Amino acid sequence: MPLLVTGAVGQVGTDLTAALRARHGADAVIAVGHRTPPSAAFRAAGPYETVDARDRDALDRLIRKHRIDAIYHLVTLLSGAGEQNPDLAWDVNLSTLKHVLDLAVHHKLAQVFWPSSIAVFGPTTPRLNTPQRTILEPTTMYGVTKLAGENLCHYYALRYGLDVRSLRYPGLITYKTFSGGGTSDYAVEIFIAAIERKHYTFFVNAQTAMPMMYMDDAMKATLDLMAAPADHITVRTSYNLGALSFTAAELATAVARRVPGFTWDHAPDFRQAIADSWPDSVDDGQARADWGWAPDYDLPTLVDTMLAGTAKRLGAKG
Ligand SMILES: NC(=O)c1ccc[n+]([C@@H]2O[C@H](COP(=O)([O-])OP(=O)(O)OC[C@H]3O[C@@H](n4cnc5c(N)ncnc54)[C@H](O)[C@@H]3O)[C@@H](O)[C@H]2O)c1
User: How far apart are CA 237 and CA 213, in angstroms?
Assistant: First the structure.
Protein backbone atom coordinates (compact mmCIF):
# COMPACT_ATOMS: atom_id res chain seq x y z
CA MET A 1 0.00 0.00 0.00
CA PRO A 2 2.79 2.56 -0.55
CA LEU A 3 1.59 6.18 -0.60
CA LEU A 4 3.16 9.13 -2.37
CA VAL A 5 2.94 12.62 -0.83
CA THR A 6 3.88 15.40 -3.25
CA GLY A 7 4.62 18.87 -1.87
CA ALA A 8 5.74 16.97 1.24
CA VAL A 9 8.11 19.69 2.50
CA GLY A 10 5.36 22.34 2.44
CA GLN A 11 3.13 23.51 5.28
CA VAL A 12 0.51 20.77 4.92
CA GLY A 13 2.91 18.14 3.61
CA THR A 14 5.15 18.27 6.67
CA ASP A 15 2.26 17.38 8.96
CA LEU A 16 0.46 15.06 6.55
CA THR A 17 3.57 12.99 5.89
CA ALA A 18 4.02 12.53 9.64
CA ALA A 19 0.32 11.72 10.16
CA LEU A 20 0.31 9.16 7.36
CA ARG A 21 3.54 7.58 8.65
CA ALA A 22 2.06 7.32 12.13
CA ARG A 23 -0.93 5.50 10.69
CA HIS A 24 0.63 3.36 7.93
CA GLY A 25 4.29 3.03 8.93
CA ALA A 26 7.28 5.17 7.91
CA ASP A 27 8.37 3.06 4.95
CA ALA A 28 4.88 3.03 3.42
CA VAL A 29 4.94 6.80 2.82
CA ILE A 30 7.22 8.24 0.13
CA ALA A 31 7.70 11.97 0.75
CA VAL A 32 8.33 13.93 -2.44
CA GLY A 33 9.91 17.37 -2.24
CA HIS A 34 11.08 19.86 -4.84
CA ARG A 35 13.50 22.74 -4.23
CA THR A 36 13.07 23.44 -0.51
CA PRO A 37 15.50 21.19 1.34
CA PRO A 38 13.84 19.17 4.12
CA SER A 39 15.13 19.32 7.68
CA ALA A 40 17.51 16.58 8.78
CA ALA A 41 14.75 15.14 11.02
CA PHE A 42 12.28 15.03 8.11
CA ARG A 43 14.90 13.44 5.86
CA ALA A 44 15.66 10.77 8.45
CA ALA A 45 12.01 9.93 9.13
CA GLY A 46 11.38 7.87 6.00
CA PRO A 47 11.81 7.54 2.22
CA TYR A 48 12.37 10.84 0.41
CA GLU A 49 12.52 11.74 -3.29
CA THR A 50 12.59 15.00 -5.24
CA VAL A 51 10.73 15.78 -8.45
CA ASP A 52 9.39 18.70 -10.45
CA ALA A 53 5.79 17.52 -10.52
CA ARG A 54 5.25 19.23 -13.89
CA ASP A 55 7.41 16.42 -15.29
CA ARG A 56 4.87 13.67 -15.95
CA ASP A 57 7.51 11.07 -16.81
CA ALA A 58 9.37 11.69 -13.58
CA LEU A 59 6.16 11.20 -11.60
CA ASP A 60 5.47 8.06 -13.59
CA ARG A 61 8.91 6.68 -12.70
CA LEU A 62 8.31 7.32 -9.00
CA ILE A 63 4.95 5.52 -9.09
CA ARG A 64 6.55 2.50 -10.78
CA LYS A 65 9.66 2.50 -8.61
CA HIS A 66 7.73 2.46 -5.34
CA ARG A 67 4.67 0.50 -6.59
CA ILE A 68 2.49 3.37 -5.40
CA ASP A 69 -1.13 2.68 -4.50
CA ALA A 70 -2.39 6.16 -3.57
CA ILE A 71 -1.23 9.75 -4.05
CA TYR A 72 -1.71 12.72 -1.75
CA HIS A 73 -1.02 15.58 -4.16
CA LEU A 74 -0.16 18.78 -2.27
CA VAL A 75 2.01 20.62 -4.80
CA THR A 76 0.83 24.20 -5.16
CA LEU A 77 1.56 27.87 -5.55
CA LEU A 78 -0.61 29.47 -2.82
CA SER A 79 -2.82 32.55 -3.20
CA GLY A 80 -0.31 35.31 -2.40
CA ALA A 81 2.46 33.69 -4.42
CA GLY A 82 -0.01 32.95 -7.23
CA GLU A 83 -0.98 36.62 -7.58
CA GLN A 84 2.72 37.47 -7.91
CA ASN A 85 3.07 34.94 -10.73
CA PRO A 86 -0.30 33.90 -12.23
CA ASP A 87 1.18 31.99 -15.19
CA LEU A 88 3.31 29.86 -12.92
CA ALA A 89 0.33 29.24 -10.60
CA TRP A 90 -1.77 28.00 -13.52
CA ASP A 91 1.04 25.74 -14.69
CA VAL A 92 2.07 24.30 -11.32
CA ASN A 93 -1.43 23.91 -9.86
CA LEU A 94 -3.19 22.41 -12.86
CA SER A 95 -0.61 20.62 -14.99
CA THR A 96 0.58 18.63 -11.98
CA LEU A 97 -2.98 17.69 -10.95
CA LYS A 98 -3.76 16.53 -14.48
CA HIS A 99 -0.61 14.38 -14.48
CA VAL A 100 -1.54 12.83 -11.14
CA LEU A 101 -5.11 12.05 -12.22
CA ASP A 102 -3.99 10.59 -15.57
CA LEU A 103 -1.31 8.46 -13.93
CA ALA A 104 -3.77 7.32 -11.25
CA VAL A 105 -6.14 6.09 -13.95
CA HIS A 106 -3.30 4.54 -15.97
CA HIS A 107 -1.82 2.67 -12.99
CA LYS A 108 -5.25 1.90 -11.48
CA LEU A 109 -4.33 3.54 -8.18
CA ALA A 110 -6.73 2.96 -5.30
CA GLN A 111 -7.10 6.62 -4.26
CA VAL A 112 -6.05 10.22 -4.87
CA PHE A 113 -6.30 13.06 -2.35
CA TRP A 114 -6.06 16.65 -3.57
CA PRO A 115 -6.86 19.68 -1.40
CA SER A 116 -8.99 22.49 -2.69
CA SER A 117 -9.48 25.71 -0.75
CA ILE A 118 -11.92 28.40 0.36
CA ALA A 119 -10.26 30.32 -2.50
CA VAL A 120 -12.80 28.74 -4.89
CA PHE A 121 -15.30 31.23 -3.46
CA GLY A 122 -15.45 34.88 -4.52
CA PRO A 123 -17.16 38.17 -3.71
CA THR A 124 -20.47 36.95 -5.21
CA THR A 125 -20.54 33.90 -2.90
CA PRO A 126 -22.76 34.19 0.23
CA ARG A 127 -20.29 35.23 2.96
CA LEU A 128 -21.82 33.64 6.03
CA ASN A 129 -22.23 29.89 6.42
CA THR A 130 -21.37 29.46 2.73
CA PRO A 131 -23.28 26.44 1.36
CA GLN A 132 -21.59 23.37 -0.12
CA ARG A 133 -23.10 24.12 -3.53
CA THR A 134 -23.07 27.83 -4.29
CA ILE A 135 -21.80 30.59 -6.60
CA LEU A 136 -18.12 29.99 -7.45
CA GLU A 137 -16.55 33.07 -9.08
CA PRO A 138 -13.01 33.31 -7.64
CA THR A 139 -10.99 36.47 -8.28
CA THR A 140 -7.46 35.06 -7.79
CA MET A 141 -5.52 32.80 -10.15
CA TYR A 142 -5.09 30.42 -7.21
CA GLY A 143 -8.88 30.24 -6.81
CA VAL A 144 -9.34 29.81 -10.55
CA THR A 145 -6.97 26.82 -10.50
CA LYS A 146 -8.73 25.34 -7.45
CA LEU A 147 -12.13 25.63 -9.11
CA ALA A 148 -10.85 24.06 -12.34
CA GLY A 149 -9.12 21.36 -10.27
CA GLU A 150 -12.32 20.52 -8.39
CA ASN A 151 -14.15 20.08 -11.68
CA LEU A 152 -11.30 17.97 -13.06
CA CYS A 153 -11.49 15.66 -10.02
CA HIS A 154 -15.27 15.40 -10.38
CA TYR A 155 -14.86 14.55 -14.06
CA TYR A 156 -12.28 11.82 -13.42
CA ALA A 157 -14.51 10.28 -10.75
CA LEU A 158 -17.50 10.25 -13.13
CA ARG A 159 -15.68 9.33 -16.33
CA TYR A 160 -13.05 6.87 -15.06
CA GLY A 161 -14.43 5.81 -11.69
CA LEU A 162 -11.31 7.22 -10.01
CA ASP A 163 -11.61 7.38 -6.20
CA VAL A 164 -10.42 10.97 -5.90
CA ARG A 165 -11.38 12.86 -2.74
CA SER A 166 -10.94 16.49 -1.79
CA LEU A 167 -11.44 19.02 1.01
CA ARG A 168 -11.79 22.79 0.74
CA TYR A 169 -9.24 23.52 3.45
CA PRO A 170 -9.75 26.82 5.26
CA GLY A 171 -6.71 28.88 6.32
CA LEU A 172 -4.48 26.39 8.14
CA ILE A 173 -2.58 27.28 11.30
CA THR A 174 0.51 25.42 12.49
CA TYR A 175 3.81 26.18 14.21
CA LYS A 176 5.71 23.37 12.52
CA THR A 177 6.28 25.25 9.25
CA PHE A 178 6.09 29.00 9.13
CA SER A 179 4.84 30.29 5.80
CA GLY A 180 3.99 29.32 2.27
CA GLY A 181 2.75 32.56 0.68
CA GLY A 182 -0.91 32.22 1.65
CA THR A 183 -3.42 34.93 2.63
CA SER A 184 -4.09 33.31 6.01
CA ASP A 185 -0.38 33.55 6.94
CA TYR A 186 -1.13 36.38 9.41
CA ALA A 187 -2.68 33.81 11.76
CA VAL A 188 0.71 32.04 11.92
CA GLU A 189 3.00 35.11 11.77
CA ILE A 190 1.30 36.75 14.76
CA PHE A 191 2.59 34.03 17.12
CA ILE A 192 6.18 34.36 15.91
CA ALA A 193 6.00 38.16 16.21
CA ALA A 194 4.38 37.99 19.65
CA ILE A 195 7.22 35.87 20.98
CA GLU A 196 10.10 37.62 19.20
CA ARG A 197 8.99 41.29 19.33
CA LYS A 198 5.73 41.54 21.29
CA HIS A 199 4.32 43.42 18.30
CA TYR A 200 2.66 42.39 15.05
CA THR A 201 1.60 44.40 12.03
CA PHE A 202 -1.27 42.61 10.28
CA PHE A 203 -1.37 42.78 6.46
CA VAL A 204 -5.19 42.78 6.73
CA ASN A 205 -7.53 45.10 8.65
CA ALA A 206 -8.98 44.46 12.10
CA GLN A 207 -12.40 43.26 10.86
CA THR A 208 -11.01 40.63 8.48
CA ALA A 209 -12.42 37.18 9.19
CA MET A 210 -12.10 33.96 7.25
CA PRO A 211 -12.57 30.27 7.98
CA MET A 212 -9.50 28.95 9.82
CA MET A 213 -8.43 25.62 11.27
CA TYR A 214 -5.65 24.23 13.43
CA MET A 215 -3.50 21.86 11.39
CA ASP A 216 -4.22 18.80 13.55
CA ASP A 217 -7.92 19.16 12.73
CA ALA A 218 -7.10 19.35 9.01
CA MET A 219 -5.01 16.17 9.33
CA LYS A 220 -7.82 14.41 11.17
CA ALA A 221 -10.27 15.47 8.43
CA THR A 222 -7.92 14.24 5.70
CA LEU A 223 -7.35 10.83 7.27
CA ASP A 224 -11.06 10.40 8.09
CA LEU A 225 -12.15 11.39 4.59
CA MET A 226 -9.71 8.96 3.00
CA ALA A 227 -10.73 6.12 5.36
CA ALA A 228 -14.47 6.55 4.75
CA PRO A 229 -16.24 3.88 2.67
CA ALA A 230 -16.43 5.01 -0.97
CA ASP A 231 -20.23 4.86 -1.02
CA HIS A 232 -20.36 7.50 1.75
CA ILE A 233 -18.61 10.04 -0.47
CA THR A 234 -21.32 12.11 -2.16
CA VAL A 235 -19.13 15.09 -3.13
CA ARG A 236 -16.46 14.51 -5.79
CA THR A 237 -15.63 18.16 -6.36
CA SER A 238 -14.53 19.09 -2.83
CA TYR A 239 -16.10 19.15 0.64
CA ASN A 240 -16.62 22.37 2.61
CA LEU A 241 -14.70 22.03 5.87
CA GLY A 242 -15.25 24.40 8.78
CA ALA A 243 -13.82 24.84 12.27
CA LEU A 244 -13.15 28.41 13.39
CA SER A 245 -13.96 31.91 12.27
CA PHE A 246 -12.47 34.93 14.05
CA THR A 247 -11.50 38.48 13.11
CA ALA A 248 -7.90 39.64 13.14
CA ALA A 249 -8.78 41.80 16.16
CA GLU A 250 -10.25 38.81 18.05
CA LEU A 251 -7.08 36.80 17.35
CA ALA A 252 -4.85 39.64 18.51
CA THR A 253 -6.92 40.10 21.67
CA ALA A 254 -6.65 36.38 22.46
CA VAL A 255 -2.85 36.57 22.02
CA ALA A 256 -2.59 39.75 24.14
CA ARG A 257 -4.41 37.98 27.00
CA ARG A 258 -1.57 35.48 27.14
CA VAL A 259 1.45 37.65 26.17
CA PRO A 260 1.72 40.67 28.51
CA GLY A 261 2.66 43.85 26.63
CA PHE A 262 1.70 42.50 23.19
CA THR A 263 0.55 45.23 20.77
CA TRP A 264 -0.57 45.19 17.16
CA ASP A 265 -1.50 47.42 14.24
CA HIS A 266 -2.63 47.03 10.65
CA ALA A 267 -1.02 47.84 7.28
CA PRO A 268 -3.24 46.11 4.71
CA ASP A 269 -1.51 45.11 1.45
CA PHE A 270 -2.72 43.36 -1.73
CA ARG A 271 -3.83 40.36 0.34
CA GLN A 272 -6.65 42.43 1.90
CA ALA A 273 -8.61 42.20 -1.37
CA ILE A 274 -8.02 38.44 -1.47
CA ALA A 275 -9.23 38.02 2.12
CA ASP A 276 -12.26 40.23 1.40
CA SER A 277 -13.27 37.99 -1.50
CA TRP A 278 -13.47 34.88 0.72
CA PRO A 279 -16.31 33.85 3.08
CA ASP A 280 -16.32 34.49 6.83
CA SER A 281 -17.57 30.96 7.58
CA VAL A 282 -18.67 27.83 5.69
CA ASP A 283 -21.46 25.27 6.10
CA ASP A 284 -19.76 21.88 6.35
CA GLY A 285 -22.95 19.90 7.03
CA GLN A 286 -22.31 17.56 4.10
CA ALA A 287 -18.88 16.52 5.47
CA ARG A 288 -20.43 15.98 8.92
CA ALA A 289 -23.25 13.86 7.46
CA ASP A 290 -21.17 11.81 4.99
CA TRP A 291 -18.09 10.89 7.02
CA GLY A 292 -18.60 12.29 10.51
CA TRP A 293 -16.49 15.44 10.40
CA ALA A 294 -16.19 17.37 13.71
CA PRO A 295 -13.28 19.66 14.68
CA ASP A 296 -11.51 19.46 18.07
CA TYR A 297 -9.81 22.90 18.37
CA ASP A 298 -11.55 26.11 19.47
CA LEU A 299 -9.83 29.53 19.50
CA PRO A 300 -8.48 29.42 23.11
CA THR A 301 -7.04 25.91 22.59
CA LEU A 302 -5.53 26.97 19.28
CA VAL A 303 -3.87 30.09 20.77
CA ASP A 304 -2.44 28.14 23.73
CA THR A 305 -1.12 25.41 21.44
CA MET A 306 0.38 27.86 18.94
CA LEU A 307 2.13 29.97 21.59
CA ALA A 308 3.67 26.93 23.26
CA GLY A 309 4.67 25.27 19.99
CA THR A 310 6.05 28.42 18.36
CA ALA A 311 8.10 29.29 21.47
CA LYS A 312 9.55 25.77 21.51
CA ARG A 313 10.37 25.89 17.81
CA LEU A 314 11.99 29.33 17.98
CA GLY A 315 13.96 28.26 21.05
CA ALA A 316 15.16 25.15 19.27
CA LYS A 317 16.22 27.22 16.22
CA GLY A 318 18.15 29.73 18.32
N1 LIG B 1 -1.83 26.22 3.96
C2 LIG B 1 -3.10 26.57 3.88
O3 LIG B 1 -3.59 27.36 4.67
C4 LIG B 1 -3.99 25.95 2.80
C5 LIG B 1 -5.33 26.36 2.75
C6 LIG B 1 -6.14 25.82 1.77
C7 LIG B 1 -5.64 24.86 0.90
N8 LIG B 1 -4.34 24.49 0.98
C9 LIG B 1 -3.87 23.50 0.01
O10 LIG B 1 -3.07 22.51 0.63
C11 LIG B 1 -2.05 22.05 -0.29
C12 LIG B 1 -0.68 22.25 0.33
O13 LIG B 1 -0.50 23.63 0.61
P14 LIG B 1 0.67 24.17 1.57
O15 LIG B 1 0.09 25.17 2.46
O16 LIG B 1 1.41 23.03 2.16
O17 LIG B 1 1.58 24.93 0.51
P18 LIG B 1 3.17 25.16 0.55
O19 LIG B 1 3.44 26.29 -0.37
O20 LIG B 1 3.64 25.24 1.96
O21 LIG B 1 3.72 23.80 -0.08
C22 LIG B 1 3.57 23.51 -1.43
C23 LIG B 1 4.77 22.70 -1.86
O24 LIG B 1 4.70 22.48 -3.28
C25 LIG B 1 6.03 22.44 -3.75
N26 LIG B 1 6.09 22.72 -5.18
C27 LIG B 1 5.84 23.89 -5.83
N28 LIG B 1 6.03 23.74 -7.15
C29 LIG B 1 6.40 22.45 -7.35
C30 LIG B 1 6.72 21.68 -8.49
N31 LIG B 1 6.70 22.21 -9.72
N32 LIG B 1 7.03 20.37 -8.33
C33 LIG B 1 7.06 19.81 -7.10
N34 LIG B 1 6.77 20.49 -5.98
C35 LIG B 1 6.45 21.80 -6.10
C36 LIG B 1 6.76 23.49 -2.95
O37 LIG B 1 8.15 23.20 -2.91
C38 LIG B 1 6.09 23.39 -1.57
O39 LIG B 1 6.87 22.61 -0.69
C40 LIG B 1 -2.26 22.87 -1.56
O41 LIG B 1 -3.09 22.17 -2.46
C42 LIG B 1 -2.99 24.09 -1.07
O43 LIG B 1 -3.73 24.71 -2.07
C44 LIG B 1 -3.50 25.01 1.91
Answer: 20
